[in-house]
Amino acid sequence: MATEKQPHWSDILKRRIANPKSDERSEEEKNAEETELFTKYYSEWKGGDEQRNYKTIPRFYYKLPAEDEVLLQKLREESRAVFLQRKSRELLDNEELQNLWFLLDKHQVPPVNGDEAMINYEAYLKVGEMAGPKCDKFFTARVYAKLLHSDPYGRISIMQFFNYVMRKVWLHQTRIGLSLYDVAGQGYLRESDLENYILELIPTLPQLDGLEKSFYSFYVCTAVRKFFFFLDPLRTGKIKIQDILACSFLDDLLELRDEELSKESQESNWFSAPSALRVYGQYLNLDKDHNGMLSKEELSRYGTATLTSVFLERVFQECLTYDGEMDYKTYLDFVLALEHRKEPAALQYIFKLLDMENRGYLNVFALNYFFRAIQEQMKLHGQEPVSFQDVKDEIFDMVKPKDPYKITLQDLVNSCQGDTVTSILIDLNGFWTYENREVLVTNDSDSGSNVDMEDT
Q1: What is the 3-state secondary structure (H, E, C) of the chain?
Q2: pTM of the entire structure?
Q3: Whole-number Å distance between alpha carbons of 193 and 199
Q4: I want to staple 293 with a disulfide (CB 3.0 to 4.6 A). Which of 105, 210, 325, 359 is the partner?
Q5: 113 φ, ψ to 5°?
Q6: pLDDT for 438-450, tens place per residue?
């Protein structure tokens, strides 16, 4: 017996439209029928097999191999290496960059804007066609619009565009280079990964040629700590490669490739040889018993030797120590915090020490507790102690916290006065500088006037 062929849903719909009939059913009944028909015909269209439909969802999670799955781990490492090599080959090499510059220079469009050669959109697209497929991503309307400023002819600077390309190529090269040290393959570097990267980078930096190999481990430790102090505030032990690329630290490190780097630039660069030797030299000078560690008494001579004993006590309570003494790595965090007091990461470090009860804010009691040590130091130096009430009012006026009785870390950061406030509370020299700021400014102005008079 032949089975009756079921009409197609589109035929049913056409017939209903062609022969409308009065329908006395309620809206609920109509909606129910509509839902039933939709479910039926949608299932037929998809094949009717719900299990098979789920199998078409693309895989988005790949479980990492376990530590004992050596073969899978090796396979994963090899596949990542091949992937990174392929990405590296997609980048412009030196010869291709030179060819790009030649094409841009050849297609510049007059008139010259000052000393800068310019190019319009039509010539820009023509160069893109000639430059090869590797350059396609640079020759888009979006990139052109990004570099378009105030030229009356609607052109962009050839030099700015070329620098843009160079910067992008450098970023991709650096990301690939960092990814080679990403052992976990998850887009971040652990401390040991970054140490290996910087250690192997040292021979490529001419400004570090004079470093003794015996100092390499201390140099690497000094360099790595800056990355982790500022980029890993939660102390997770790892940093995203994206964060490394986004900050300026890598630029400072790679600046040491410049063989003619000025003395001033070297002194201001944390990663330079003079800077690393300075920090390590200070550590050795503080270590009076030469045991490789710093006691609280030894650390008290840091800087101008005017940090209060109360603050130093908190440092040794909160920071990692070994039998009550501080190692070089912990010392580096301490130095980075005190030398960069304007930075949020440094303020977070100091705030944690000032927030004795871990409440998340500083109240009048906490301010008084730390400032009392400043008053005691003033007495020891034969000075008349300043009233805490006056200092407290000045601090709250500077910070302007949301709660008039509590100062949070965010309040300190938002006020842009965190460095001044912390200096007042932990360092006699910092308090003295704040207290005599008007005199110091006047002296600086007088000195400047004298210099001007002498020059004339």
Answers
A1: CCCCCCCCHHHHHHHHHHCCCCCCCCHHHHHHHHHHHHHHHHHHHHCCCHHHHHCCCCCCCCCCCCCCCHHHHHHHHHHHHHHHHHHHHCCCCHHHHHHHHHHHHHCCCCCCECCECEECHHHHHHHHHHHCHHHHHHCCHHHHHHHCCCCCCCCEEHHHHHHHHHHHHHHHHHHHHHHCCCCCCCCEEEHHHHHHHHHHHHHHCHHHCCCCHHHHHHHHHHHHHHHHHHHCCCCCCEEEHHHHHHCCHHHHHHHHHCCCCCHHHHHHCCCCHHHHHHHHHHHHHHCCCCCCCECHHHHCCCCCCCECHHHHHHHHHHCCCECCEECHHHHHHHHHHHHCCCCHHHHHHHHHHHCCCCCCCECHHHHHHHHHHHHHHHHHCCCCCCCHHHHHHHHHHHHCCCCCCCECHHHHHHHCCHHHHHHHHHEHHHHHHHHCHHHHHHHHHHHHHHHHHHHC
A2: 0.77
A3: 10
A4: 325
A5: -95, 95
A6: 665 555 555 544 5
Name residue 222's amino acid. T
pLDDT given at position 46 = 64
- Which tokens go with 237? 């032990």
Count how many Cα atoms sit within 13 Å of the Cα of residue 402 in the half-sphere of its side chain. Answer: 7
448 CB neighbour count, 10 Å cutoff: 10
Residue 451 CA, distance from chain mean position: 41
Q: What is the mean pLDDT of residues 414-426?
A: 95
All residues at 6 or more sequence positions from 116 whose CB lies less than 8 Å from its CB, including other chains: 157, 158, 159, 160
Which tens digits make up the pLDDT trace of 172-194? 999 999 999 998 888 999 999 99
* 439, two tokens: 């005199």
Please give, one letter per residue, the 3-state secondary structure of 220-274.
HHHHHHHHHHHHCCCCCCEEEHHHHHHCCHHHHHHHHHCCCCCHHHHHHCCCCHH
Confidence of residue 11 (pLDDT cuts 50, 70, 90): confident
Tokens standing for 309?
């004993």
Quickly tell me which residue has 């009550």 as its tokens: 324
